[in-house]
Each structure stands twice: as structure tokens, then as C-alpha cells.
Design goal:
WYL_dom, single chain, 4 domains, 11 helices, five-stranded antiparallel sheet, SH3 type barrels, Arc Repressor Mutant, subunit A, transcription
């Protein structure tokens, strides 16, 4: 018995007032006997389908069970379709296809054009411009492991480039700041960890299954922590990198410094990530203060220059 056929039959019954067994059999290229078994399965799942005999007879979902299409406003349907469509760009699967079909079945013909217009007013595409070509494949592997409660193994590039082999019980896929992560219980660390997919290699789903633990959701909001750790530094930038600097602060943090430069109050944490951000602006950015960060920038630039001198 194919689950996708059952879902499709339910959607047809929700959309139509009544349809015959032979018509359904022809539609799905199966026998009427198979359709009768499918209807029994749908009834057992709690969706009340009744049969009517005679001319114009067939199967129908009991009227009191059907959802009135008018229960969803144009804005409701547009929002649902927008969310499902944006996910389908990066997380492929039959479940999303069926979910989209379900939502579309609620669109009355007289509102279809209006909903399409509103849907096209906002486009959410979460797929990256460039990046690791393995990500999509890894997403599918992890989704399968999540559904089947199977262990995952992979090589992982951790902090400072250290490579380790991990065996992990998968619990959740997470997208944060345009990057995919796996939250799972790591057998090596004997604790829950968050793994970035782009740092994985040789990802394999094992045959071994695992018993679910009490799940610890990852901490994804570091607003309070960042406010404690961050300090503001003064940088002088050329206008040509202004668009990139705006990814890290707001326009209110900019003060003109001549015709082509700005002084910027830049949020900064003294770690590799933030020093790399400043270095990424090249000679279009100068750290003015505090002095110890300016000196550290000079040291790093000297080390880079020494690489090319040798």
C-alpha cells in the first residue's frame, strides 16, 4: 500500500464532493479492489469516508469532517505557501510535495490569482549562492537517519583545523545564519553537540539504531552573551566596503570622514573570527582604537606579509 497514493486519494476526496471507485482506479492505474482497501485504510486512520451506491454514487468524506476552504484567508494561504515553497528549495522530499498539494487544494478558484500575486511579492530562497556541494546530499542522509533513528558517522574538522572521527545519534537539523547544523548526541564527547554540515566529510548512515534520549535543544540565541562579550572599536573605512561593513552594524554607526571615508563604531569580540572580518576588508579598513587591537592587527598583517616574502 503506497502512502503517497493514500495521501493523494484524501486530497481528491477533500477537493471533490464525490468520486467513484473506478474513476480512482483509472487515475492511479490500480484495480478497484485496491481502491476499496485504500478507503478502508483511510477510515481506520480516522478520516470518515462513506460510499454511496447507484447513479452518481461513489466515495466522499463526510461533510461535517471537511474543512471549509473559506476558513483560510488569502493572507493565510499566501503565508503557508511561502513557507513551504522556501523550504522546498533546500529540503527536498515527498512530505513537502504533499504538504504543498494540501495547501493548494484549499485555494478557491476565484481567489487563485490574488493569492499567486501576493505569494510572488516576497521571495525567500534559503539556498546558498556558492558553497559545499555535499550539503544537499548530507541533508538527505541526515533526514533518513532522523526518520529511522539510525547512527551517523563522519569525519569532522573542529576548532583550529583538528580532524576527528565522530559517531552521532541525530536529533535535529538546524539552519542558523544561512548554515546547516546537526544537533546530536556525540559518542566521543558523551554529550549533545552541534555540528556544522560544511565541516563534515565522508558522512555515512549506519545500520545500527539507537534508543532516544531526553533531548537537549541547542542554544541558538546568544544575544545576551554577545552583549556581554562585545565591545565597540573605531575603524576607518573606504566607502567601497561600506556595503560589506553594513552586514555587521547599522548605518547609524557611520560618521563621514571626508568625501570617501567613514569612521565606524564596529561591534567586536577579541577572537579569530572577528580579526578575520577586519582583515577581509584589506587596505580599505584601518583600526584606529583601542590601541591593543590596532597593535594585534599590525602583528597579523606582518605575519601575512612574511609568508609572501619567504
Amino acid at each position: 500500500m503506497k502512502v503517497d497514493r493514500l495521501v493523494s486519494i484524501i486530497m481528491i476526496l477533500l477537493d471533490k464532493k464525490r468520486i467513484g471507485a473506478q474513476a480512482l482506479a483509472d487515475m492511479f492505474e490500480v484495480s478497484p479492489r485496491t481502491i476499496y482497501r485504500d478507503i478502508d485504510a483511510i477510515n481506520m486512520a480516522g478520516i470518515p469516508v462513506r460510499g454511496a451506491s447507484g447513479v452518481g454514487g461513489g466515495f466522499e468524506i463526510m461533510p461535517e469532517y471537511k474543512i471549509d476552504k473559506k476558513v483560510f484567508s488569502t493572507a493565510d494561504l499566501s503565508a503557508l505557501l511561502m513557507g513551504l515553497s522556501s523550504l522546498s528549495n533546500i529540503v527536498r522530499g515527498d512530505e513537502l510535495v504533499h504538504a504543498l498539494a494540501k495547501v493548494k487544494s484549499f485555494i478557491p478558484a476565484d481567489r487563485a490569482k490574488d493569492i499567486e500575486l501576493k505569494l510572488n511579492q516576497i521571495c525567500i530562497d534559503l539556498s546558498p549562492w556558492l558553497g559545499n556541494s555535499n550539503i544537499q546530499t548530507y541533508l538527505e542522509i541526515i533526514k533518513s537517519a532522523l526518520q529511522e533513528n539510525k547512527l551517523l558517522s563522519f569525519e569532522y574538522i573542529a576548532h583550529r583545523g583538528k580532524s576527528t572521527t565522530r559517531t552521532v545519534e541525530p536529533y535535529q537539523l538546524v539552519m542558523k545564519s544561512s548554515h546547516w547544523y546537526l544537533q546530536g548526541y556525540c559518542h566521543k564527547r558523551k554529550d549533545f553537540r552541534l555540528f556544522r554540515l560544511s565541516r563534515m566529510s565522508n558522512l555515512q548512515m549506519q545500520e545500527e539504531t539507537f534508543a532516544l534520549r531526553d533531548y537537549q535543544k541547542p542554544i541558538l540565541d546568544f544575544t545576551d552573551t554577545l552583549e556581554t562579550l562585545q565591545t565597540e572599536i573605531k575603524i576607518r573605512i573606504h566607502k567601497s566596503v561600506m556595503d560589506r561593513v553594513l552586514d555587521f552594524c547599522s548605518y547609524e554607526d557611520f560618521s563621514p570622514a571626508g568625501e570617501e571615508h567613514y569612521i565606524v563604531s564596529f561591534p567586536f569580540i577579541e577572537n579569530e573570527y572577528y580579526y578575520d572580518i577586519l582583515l577581509s576588508f584589506g587596505d580599505k579598513c584601518e583600526c584606529l582604537e583601542p590601541s591593543h587591537i590596532r597593535e594585534e592587527m599590525k602583528r597579523r598583517i606582518h605575519d601575512i606579509a612574511a609568508l609572501y616574502q619567504n
